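The data are quoted verbatim for completeness:
=====
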Amino acid sequence: MKFYSVNLLQFLCIILFSIFSSFESSNYHDYADALSKSILFFEGQRSGYLPWDQKITWRGNSGVGDGWTSANTDLTGGYYDAGDNIKFNFPMAFTTTMLAWSVIEFGEYMPPSELRNALVAIKWGTDYLLKTVSQPNRIFVQVGDPIIDHNCWERPEDMDTARTVYTVEAPNPASDVAGETAAALAASSIAFRSSDPGYADTLLRTSIRVFDFADGYRGAYSDNSNIREGACPFYCDFDGYQASILLKYLYMFAWLRRASQGDSYLNYIQNNGKTLGADDNINEFGWDNKHAGLNVLVSKEVLEGSAYTLESYKVSADSFMCTLIPDSSSYHIKFSPGGLIYRPGGSNLQHATSISFLLLVYANYLEKSSKILNCGSISVGPKMLRQIAKRQVDYILGDNPKGMSYMVGYSNYYPQRIHHRGSSLPSIKDHPQPIRCKEGSVYFNSSAPNPNVLVGAVVGGPEEDDVYEDDRADFRKSEPTTYINAPFVGVLAYFVANPNLA
């Protein structure tokens, strides 16, 4: 009896070790498949008239009257930001910037067909953003009343709620949204420069004009009383006036500098770099806070040796990277027991994907300049930064305590009950009769899996305990957003070409 007990114990140890080892380091993921699906997701978020080659076929035309009734202008198109039916320009512009940045940095790693798909996804955003800034001294910042919309559970094809247009006109301020829009158009102009130079020129020219609006009327768009009730508490400026204006301005200037190579933008970045403290929200990057992304973006010129006067940005970028290195004295970013980057506030995977993106971008900058990162007594090379990013990617794709892929449609085990109206309600193709505002509640409250698979959607994901319940009502964990997916496109593109870090 004792002999068999010992062998059973040994056998269990071997099995557990094998599972743990594969959990810690996995090389079996199909990154090309994940990349394709991450881009396909954006088709499921489209608003407006869908094209003939739409691949997510359970969707239909929606929001086709946007702008006409309340603003007498065409505001069709664009993306719904998440599982609702609202078009918020703030996260949409950030999403567009990140898709463009993904192509700029990692487009060379994408298969040609996926590079084309990524550019199509960018253009769906930029075409809409161009509409929102088409009139002088006016910017349309949102379509749809979020309070009314969030009290309904209906397909975008059935929307019978108010499609209120929220507008900022001079001299009222909208520096944050206008700045993010200018950054999106400038970044996208770089992405399209080789394939469609005429469109790239239009994007850059418009970006400069939008910059003038942002610079001329300074302040947060949510400071406008007519905007606050629609933007807050969803996408108002949580960082406050100073952080918003400074960081988003510099981020906008950095993209305009990169797109135009204009010295005036460089001078502004140089003269205001000292106002960025290395300890001020340094580990933040997302639709609201641009600190870490700005520092990484500007550091490119420092590492290339073309702008030593921007050294303060590189110092801040270095400091951010060191917070992710476990043996560094400045290490303080939290990880879950399973290895997921964690920050409070819900929709946690937005932090994992955006930080992973910055890790890979900075690793490329370091490698191309033959530089390393000094984190106190520790020297960090590009490989270590990439390993940290890969751990996040593999976690999202299934190497986690639950063994679940948090990308819908990837692997055989993924969230079935995501917080998403179109996915959770019968398709208009299968159920052509309208499902009105409150009629969708029966589907929301159902325990059945969503009938329509929103392929490629990355949900909000687990929090600090690695726990995830497949619960449609828990929107902080189960709702996908465009700004979770957008940086993940670039991250996955890198690992398509570099699946094994040697």
Remarks:
- Residues 2-24 form the longest helix (23 residues).
